[in-house]
Amino acid sequence: MIKHIFSDMDGTLLDSQGNVSDTNANAVKDSGIPFTLVSARAPMEMEAAITKLGLTEPQIGFNGGLIYQKTDNGFKVLNDNPLNMSSFWQLMKVIQNNFSAVSCSCYGLNEWYAEKIDSGIEYESKLTGQKATVTDFDKLSDTKLYKIMMITFDLELMNKLNTALLRLHIPDVSIKRSGDNYLEITSNLAQKSKGIKYIQKLEKLAKEDMVAFGDGHNDLPMLTNVGWPIVMDNAPDEIKQYGKYITKSNDDNGVAYGINHLLS
């Protein structure tokens, strides 16, 4: 019996314009099954989807770095793994000194911070509808930070950035590419699988009780930890091999299609 559904957002629940379709929203609501978003996004970037879906269950942000619930008083933290600030500054020294052409920003629980508004920040703002708070990162020393986000549309520069940061061999961070243009840095404890296991333990779920929808490499820890892994048709072939089923694409309401077929 299916008791909990987990879903990635970008490329999965959201369409190519970054929206939750009415078809997907209705399928989630009509199923009556607890539903958790599992995303690299910050809570503020997940809030519109949470509201449209009417979710009250724990949600997973920053790729598992934060487990939280949306309440009338804001976001209630249930479990978190922020960045180690000494590692943050080690990374920032390299980024600021050698990669100033790359857009750099970071996220706290309720704020998105940038030192300047550049083309990368403008691009992300249009995509998510969020506005960055412009501040010197030096002023964030007492702030819990969960993610550093780097954006560049220069593929060669992105490859150089990725290589340079990996060569630092900082043990307590996870440095991962997200598509061609994004590089995201979180705590090494921020893993989608840890978020899944936290909720599994909280709700006393068996592996066979859980469904997950995903489309990317960072979804594999989630897909391999549930009994019913469902992969989007728009996913790369190497991801599809991990799916028990392949559903329709994110632009064809694949989550709704998958839910309706599972329940029938």
How would you characterize this protein structure?
By secondary structure, the protein is of the alpha/beta class. The protein folds into two domains: 4-80 and 190-263, HAD superfamily/HAD-like (Rossmann fold, 3-Layer(aba) Sandwich), CATH 3.40.50.1000; 85-187, Hypothetical Protein, Haloacid Dehalogenase-like Hydrolase, Chain: A, domain 2 (2-Layer Sandwich), CATH 3.30.1240. 35% of the residues lie in helices and 23% in strands. The chain is built from ten helices and 14 strands. The chain has helices spanning 9-13, 22-31, 43-53, 85-98, 119-128, 155-166, 192-203, 220-223, 237-240, 254-263; strands spanning 4-7, 35-37, 59-61, 66-71, 74-80, 103-107, 112-114, 133-134, 147-151, 173-178, 182-187, 210-214, 228-231, 245-246. The strands form three sheets. It has a six-stranded mixed sheet with strand order 8-7-6-9-11-10, sandwiched between helices. The chain has a five-stranded parallel sheet with strand order 2-1-12-13-14. The chain has a three-stranded antiparallel sheet with strand order 3-4-5. β6 and β7 (112-114) form a beta hairpin. α2 runs parallel beside α10 (254-263). The two termini are 12 Å apart. The model has no long low-confidence stretch (mean pLDDT 95).
